[in-house]
Predict the structure of Phosphoribosylamine--glycine ligase.
Amino acid sequence: MRVLIIGSGGREHAIGWKIKKDNPDAELFFSPGNGGTKDLGENEELVSIEEAKNFAKSQGIGLTIVGPEAELVEGIVDVFKNAGLKIFGPNQKSAKLEGSKAFSKEFMTKYGIKTAESKTFRHFIDAQKHIESLEEFPVVIKASGLAAGKGVVIAEDKFMAESTIRKIMVDGVFGDAGKEVVIETFLKGFECSILSIFNGSTITPFITAKDHKKINEEDKGLNTGGMGVVAPNPSFTEAHMQDFTKNILIPTQKGLIEEKMKFAGVIFFGLMVTENGVYLLEYNMRFGDPEAEALLPLLKNNLLEVIKDSIAGKELKLEWEDQHSCCVVMASGGYPGNYEKGFQIRGLENVEAPLFLAGVKQTNGKYYTDGGRVLNVVGLGKDLEEARNIAYKNIQKINFDFEYYREDIGKSI
């Protein structure tokens, strides 16, 4: 089969790696891809959805998999389906569950999904008045639209909250994503990520994962796209899973069916586990990054067959290795702010663990930094400690100028 994978990050490299591992004869194309995907197939510069559709038709692509959220929100799935092409991902209506936090909050409320209390504002003055009326802090402020994983701020006091909404709604630090904001009650607990696959009628969950969003150790500093992931999440118990299934997964499934949001694709549940149970923070409607890098090496099933079965509406049964994974992200110094790129990456050939490149370009067989999050090293072990040790042992074999990575991924869980 010829497969087109849309995206350029470590997630897309991991998807391609898993497909190629299970199906050596598969022909892979990536748009635009990166320096790692170039080793698995062909990178193509398809600059629009229309161009991607035409490429898929002309090249006999049997399946397209969409990695990033932007193309999903723009409606790539609808365009491909209307052209008679097979594609894995939510249609534009369903992608709005990620593309608009205001819309997703309305959906959660309508179907009784356990989530934090919130209010949505489209005008700065109204949001400011609401903050003035609040007596309890911190509060969570979210840019409603897509902000590359960085549009959520925990405001510790009234001054910080007012400053945040001004930056988002007036100064436009997140562009159009901040035209609407959601202000919600702060939930205290630990986070958990659960990816799942929807086949149009049933949601089948993956094993759990734990993302590390902050740039600095001990989860301090600015939010990033993710600095590392461990799976399964050691803090998430069977009781938590039952709570999640009853109060979040099942009503989500019911809502999707009733709203006629039928698709084959991924639903990512971002959860907060508190002393009062499990709450849904947000939906993402695609494989997480770097969650995909941590989870796909543990999946026993043939990913291509799973995707084909979900598109056909067949019942899915996922099987997992009896192992733990620890994914550590190497980033460019200065990320998520300003950083330099173009530095040669050395030592990749010495890594003895799954390795997924992200912000990397390849020129004449050499690899150079080309983004904020540069690459992902994944340790696999019988327990989390062994997985951590393998990840960090291998990450030390890699070097490039101004490299940065957290040394505590999975340590304080």
User: Anything to note?
Assistant: The chain has a mean pLDDT of 96. DSSP finds twelve helices and 23 strands in the chain.
